[in-house]
Design a protein that fits this description.
The protein has 9 helices and 3 strands. It is mainly alpha-helical and 208 residues long. Strands 2-1-3 form a 3-stranded parallel beta sheet, sandwiched between helices. Helix 6 links the parallel strand 1 and strand 2. Helix 5 crosses helix 6. The structure holds pyridoxal-5'-phosphate (PLP).
Length: 208
């Protein structure tokens, strides 16, 4: 497969240098984990349905990720689990866009959280409204990306598929119709962008 995705061009330099946070659970799975405030006296009441209820769950969610990865046919390291997809949207913006500098592109009417998360992170939003019939105007999108000032580049194009609230499917042939809105929208949005506009060097946030 041709390599069109370059993570280093998408991710902010400070995030690339980030050393992941480590906790005791990275190195130990038994014994008392004082940094996690585990209850040294055990659970205050009998709970049959959970093993070791006095423990915090593993922050890496390895078991769940492994099952999900198997189901989706991807590697475990490609799986991100968030608190709803709004968390993923926020993290994508924080990972890629420098506050007060970078931009995202949205296609209104579309899911409102893209704009909200951008605003919270002080990220500029370029809006390219959908045409009549709520269809995407690729030409206008490309022009907007090309004409965007160099000092405020568009780092993420949010293509909500199927779109909320219009219910329209974009790039129909590229998508599996059996997937849920939420899943597609966070995992696939820029993959599809990349395939259609790869000549523009707009990288996907998810390697395809
Ligand atoms: C397109 C889209 N993405 C994400 C969400 C938010 O999903 P979650 O509840 O998983 O955060 C919604 C909710 O309506 C949505 O329509």
């Amino acid at each position: 497969m041709m390599k069109t995705f370059d993570l280093s061009k998408v991710v902010r330099p400070n995030i690339q240098k980030l050393k992941p946070y480590r906790c005791a659970r990275d190195d130990f799975s038994d014994g008392q984990l004082m940094d996690a405030n585990e209850n040294s006296l055990g659970p205050p009441m009998k709970v049959d349905i959970i093993d070791e209820p006095e423990r915090y769950p593993c922050p890496h969610q390895r078991e769940l990720k492994s099952l999900y990865a198997k189901w989706r046919g991807v590697e475990q390291k490609q799986v991100f689990l968030g608190v709803g997809s709004d968390e993923a949207i926020d993290l994508l913006i924080r990972m890629a866009c420098t506050p007060g500098k970078d931009s995202i592109l949205t296609l209104p009417p579309t899911y409102g959280m893209y704009g909200v998360c951008a605003q919270v992170n002080d990220v500029n939003v370029v809006k390219i409204p959908l045409d009549d019939g709520f269809v995407m105007n690729s030409k206008k999108i490309l022009t907007a990306i090309e004409n965007q000032p160099k000092q405020s580049p568009i780092k993420i194009v949010f293509v909500c598929h199927p779109n909320n609230p219009t219910g329209i499917f974009f790039f129909l042939s590229f998508f599996s119709l059996s997937r849920s809105t939420t899943h597609i929208h966070t995992q696939e949005m820029t993959c599809r962008t990349q395939r259609n506009w790869k000549h523009l060097q707009i990288p996907s946030v998810m390697p395809s």
